[in-house]
Amino acid sequence: MTHGTGSTRGVPPRVLVITHDLDPTADYVLRELNARGVPFWRTDVADFPQRITMRAELRPDGAWGGAVVGPLRGIDLSELTSVWWRKPTTFRFPDSMSGPEQRFAAGQAKRGFVGVLGSLPQVLWVNRPERNADCTKPAQLTAAAESGLQVPATLVTNDPGAVRDFADRCRGRIVTKVLGGIVHTENGQRGQIYTTRVPADRWDDPRVALTAHLYQQEITDKAYEVRVTCVAGRLFLVRIDAPDGPGRLDWRTDSKRLAYSPICLPVPIRTGILDMLWCLGLVYAAVDLIVDQVGTHWLVDVNPGGQWAWIDCTRDAITTALADLLQKGTL
Fold first, then answer.
1. Lowest mean pLDDT across 28-32, 181-185, 199-203
2. Residue 327: pLDDT above 80?
3. Taking every pair of C-alpha atoms in the chain, what is the biggest distance, in angstroms?
4. Choosing a second label site near 98 at 20 to 30 A (CA), which of 184, 199, 226, 241?
5. Where is the MvdD-like pre-ATP grasp domain (predicted)?
6. Where is the domain boundary, 218, 243, 273?
7. Are 122 and 15 part of one and the same domain?
8. The domain boundary residue, chosen from 186, 218, 250
């Protein structure tokens, strides 16, 4: 259970890791912190308020004093130096509470529990949850373009008529992507919604009017893709080559057949990525690029909680970089 997980018993934790119970990516970094003797506490917001107690009092100097305590471990607010907001789940409340009561309690918990932690001075966040939330697809594409990166022609609309006009300008080659996370659950079944080509017979689909949709011009002359994992200004690069098939459009659909190799980025692209992340206020992010046959680098996604541990050639370096950052507690 996450609420009882920590390191270096007897030494007050200075690093708080907030993620769900089964997060093997986080485990790599936590094992590294353990090996270094860096005290940390791993928990999840789902443990509040039933397994975690917060006692926070505002001092005359404006600082919060007190502690957050679980059944086996806790953290003194005055000792906290780093927070890794990794993959938390949602607050959980007793079944005895009604739906309206639980919704009210969730708002209180967010503003109280997360609000106090976010108000602590001199604490490094990787990343602040509000920065993650603000990193919407429109925001990241705007930041990318303002930072000198190339982005595909993009339309966000709920007007079916606008889709045909956009597709005509893109010579009929458009794709659609979700505006949020790709994980989708329906009737108890969990699945993913990947990038999809939009054929001409769906350009006028009246269901487009039901909500916002994102469309982009397809990069039809794709050569390969690049995953850039960014940790406090350090960039870890890997080239991704997908075989013919569904993975050529979205490599996530064919992850078992991908080929990974080291690569370098042109200086203007590196600079653009760093400028973009500064604009978005992100300490950590996974950035995806498409490189076409003439060498143009197209920014297609910025994920502030993106995975990285499945790629062997960069795993150890990213683990070390994150552990260094959390241990140091400053940028």
1. 181-185
2. yes
3. 66
4. 184
5. 15-130
6. 218
7. yes
8. 218
